[in-house]
Design goal:
This protein is mainly α. The chain folds into two domains: 54 residues, Orthogonal Bundle (Arc Repressor Mutant, subunit A); 117 residues, Tetracycline Repressor, domain 2, CATH 1.10.357. The protein is 65% helix and 0% strand. It is built from eleven helices and no strands. The protein is flat and about 60 Å long. The N terminus is likely disordered.
Length: 231
């Protein structure tokens, strides 16, 4: 496909010119709406009002399209700044990455399976490590802290993506149907756990992502303090 000469882009009067960024952002919008399986070069061309072959003036192939889309999603991550309150910065940054991956639910699986990291991904990783090092983490401790934080953001997102529901209303419906078939006397603690999920307060309180993130941050702060006191 990539060896075939690309057709020239036909410019329709009043329509903005076709650019790589416009192609990538249209791909993101299409994947957000239809899922990654609903994204094809032909359908993307239809959305943009051009022949599919015109897209190859701006992306080499579908892999290049996906890499570029993931790069733009990662660019939405807010990097932490080095400063006195490393926890607040890492918390804000981790939350922004999680929120971006939730906005683009197709992106997280691609993020962990694509090849070379993009410049925004490299810059974000460097900023996280720089924030930790500026806070007094040793090279070794920053190494483990970085991977613990990355595992929480990416791992939690992938786990959440596996849920067979999209919102609280669907969760309540699924939970009620599951409870109707679950022998409560045999599984009293699991029954209690599921019922808690169905309570309105459980949807309004601290999110499971934030709870886990605070556990990671608490542990890292203790390790940082111990290392500092040993110097």
């Amino acid at each position: 496909m990539t060896d075939t000469p690309a057709e020239p882009t036909t410019q329709v009067e009043g329509r903005p010119p076709l650019t790589r960024e416009r192609v990538l952002r249209a791909g993101i919008a299409l994947a957000d709406e239809a899922g990654i399986d609903g994204l094809s070069m032909r359908r993307l061309g239809q959305v943009l009002g051009v022949e599919a072959m015109s897209l190859y003036n701006h992306v080499a192939n579908k892999d290049d399209l996906l890499d570029g889309m993931v790069e733009l999603v990662v660019a939405e991550f807010e990097p932490p700044a080095a400063g006195p309150d490393w926890r607040a910065e890492v918390r804000r940054s981790s939350r922004s990455a999680y929120d971006a991956l939730l906005r683009h639910r197709w992106a997280c699986p691609l993020l962990v399976t694509r090849g070379n990291p993009s410049p925004p991904q490299l810059a974000y990783s460097d900023a996280v490590l720089g924030c930790l090092r500026a806070a007094g983490f040793s090279v070794e401790l920053a190494h483990y802290a970085f991977h613990a934080l990355d595992s929480h953001v990416v791992g939690f997102t992938l786990w959440q993506m596996s849920f067979p529901f999209k919102n609280q209303a669907e969760l309540v419906d699924l939970g009620r149907r599951f409870l109707a078939q679950l022998p409560a006397a045999d599984y009293p603690h699991l029954t209690e756990h599921i019922r808690y999920h169905l309570e309105p307060a459980s949807a309004e309180g601290q999110s499971a992502f934030d709870f886990g993130l605070e556990l990671v941050l608490d542990s890292l702060e203790r390790l940082r303090a111990v290392a500092a006191s040993a110097k």
